[in-house]
């Protein structure tokens, strides 16, 4: 092989590998939510954006966030496919019915920014717009305090948990043999079919709506489905309540 042929082969290969490593690193950073990110739950529906903060604040077509702190959006759709886009932040993510998608960002400048749905979702798609309000951390804390009278998501989830009778099987004093939920979130769960899955938001959602899909090892598939009895917003509140069960300092008693 001539020397020129070696150069033609090795140099493009080296450039390709360098670009691959660089792009893989950028992709990993974009999809990995930083620790300590502020969680905010988003439910899209024709034709509005509903945002809910863990502390209990609710917003319609608005999203208040602090300056300089990573924000994680956990999103789902109540009806059809939507797509959340904040052009000034150069971010966009599809929001799908029946599943959760995530998106995170860190705002580095205060102000108001447009929020759009960029997936055609029906007759009033063009009206599905909103704004993101980036505030100084102290101002954001003041905004949260101004809405402190609202129950937290975990508190509302605990109430819904009780109304649906979940503690009748999963409570500490329950006579029915069912998995205990304290400390469950974020831990691996062994299933009857031999698989192991992480008890994240998706797992809890499926356990409530599709309980026979992933049955924990050692238990029967006897849990009823609550599909049609609970909406996406109430389901997210139950998830936030179950998260609180793993933290003794934030635990909410139903």
Could you characterize what this model shows?
The protein has 254 residues and is α+β, with helices and mostly antiparallel strands. The chain has two domains: 45-146, Immunoglobulin-like, CATH 2.60.40; 153-244, Cytochrome Bc1 Complex, Chain D, domain 2. Helices cover 30% and strands 26% of the residues. The chain has six helices and twelve strands. It has helices spanning 3-31, 137-146, 153-163, 167-170, 201-209, 232-244, and strands spanning 38-45, 48-52, 58-60, 62-66, 70-77, 82-86, 91-95, 101-106, 111-117, 129-135, 188-190, 196-198. The chain has a five-stranded mixed sheet with strand order 3-2-1-5-8, with helices on one face. Strand 2 and strand 3 form a beta hairpin. The longest helix has 29 residues, at 3-31. The radius of gyration is 22 Å and the shape is globular. The N and C termini lie far apart (76 Å). Residues 247-254 have low confidence and may be disordered.
Q: What topology emerges from the helices and strands here?
A:
Elements: H1 3-31, E1 38-45, E2 48-52, E3 58-60, E4 62-66, E5 70-77, E6 82-86, E7 91-95, E8 101-106, E9 111-117, E10 129-135, H2 137-146, H3 153-163, H4 167-170, E11 188-190, E12 196-198, H5 201-209, H6 232-244
Helix pairs in contact: 3-6
């Amino acid at each position: 092989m001539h020397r020129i042929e070696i150069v033609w082969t090795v140099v493009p290969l080296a450039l390709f590998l360098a670009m691959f490593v660089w792009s893989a690193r950028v992709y990993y950073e974009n999809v990995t939510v930083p620790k300590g990110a502020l969680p905010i739950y988003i439910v899209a529906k024709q034709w509005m954006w509903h945002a809910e903060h863990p502390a209990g604040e609710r917003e319609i077509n608005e999203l208040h966030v602090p300056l300089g702190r990573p924000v994680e959006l956990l999103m789902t759709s109540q009806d059809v496919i939507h797509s959340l886009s904040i052009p000034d932040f150069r971010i966009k993510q599809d929001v799908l019915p029946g599943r959760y998608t995530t998106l995170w960002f860190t705002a580095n400048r205060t102000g108001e920014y447009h929020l759009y749905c960029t997936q055609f979702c029906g007759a009033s798609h063009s009206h599905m717009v909103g704004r993101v309000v980036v505030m100084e951390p102290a101002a954001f804390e003041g905004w949260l305090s101004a809405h402190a009278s609202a129950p937290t998501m975990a508190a509302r989830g605990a109430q819904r948990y009780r109304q649906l009778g979940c503690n009748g099987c999963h409570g500490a004093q329950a006579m029915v043999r069912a998995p205990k939920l304290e400390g469950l979130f974020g831990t691996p769960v062994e299933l009857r079919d031999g698989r192991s899955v992480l008890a994240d938001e998706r797992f809890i959602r499926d356990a409530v709506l599709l309980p026979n899909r992933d049955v924990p090892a050692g238990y029967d598939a006897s849990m009823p489905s609550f599909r049609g009895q609970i909406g996406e917003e109430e389901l997210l509140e139950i998830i936030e309540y179950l998260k609180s069960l793993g933290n003794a300092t934030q635990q909410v008693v139903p």
